[in-house]
Specification:
The protein has about 270 residues and is α+β, with helices and mostly antiparallel strands. Helices cover about 30% and strands about 30% of the residues.
Amino acid sequence: MAKMKKERMEQLLAACGNIAVEAGGRILEVAEEALDITEKGDGSPLTLADRASHDCIQQGLAKLDAGTDILSEEGDIDAFLSRGNEIFWLVDPLDGTKEFIGGLDEYTVNIALIDHGCPVLGVVYAPALGVLWAGGEGTGAYRRAGQGSAEKIAPVPKQRPETAVVSRSHLSPETVNFLEKNEIAETSPRGSSVKICAVAEGAADVYPRYGPTCIWDTGAGAAVARAAGCRVVDLKGNDLDYSPEHGVLREGFIVFPAGMQVILRGEK
């Protein structure tokens, strides 16, 4: 795909934001029923809210951009992978299902556009918080709370990280080691893609995740973070790749402002 014009990017961001907000509304509508939990093949939970959001996003994206394929956590993943798409929509209808089931408000709707392994557009919506984060190549990133105006966001420029946002349910020994190496004493546990957006908007300096994640967990947040002026790298320091030819799992990643000095795993 040739680099998208800013006007077209802004149009897609606005449309995807509307789709995410509508999907978030569906999640809230079925919240009472959604605790009728089933289990997917990998043992992770699935609720009626996941399905309601998935259906809403599928319909919205089909109307917006019928020619571009969709990879959704709740879709037919094997069929998508067999088609070998390099440009596609990447969707997590309900990121943070465990938080949702637990009654916490840190769950999100994630929609990203992937172009040859790169997340070029992303929207992250937290229905219970009423907050939308969005960003794309050439547009910068912004945050909108409720019916308020969209406000530009950017990470806090620092030479070294002082604060970190960490997973509420995945604080691994490798993460602890990362925090020690970077001399980070202040951490804030959160759930879902809210963690990536926290770095993008300057609420935290870095987000380390040591442990496997699926590409739909991070694609939208990565697009927002990149648009805000952050890097999203794998555990070797390379830009995190979203090409489905490498499968849907990634070993881990780190989000931090571009230009910040961060000690990765294995460094002295």
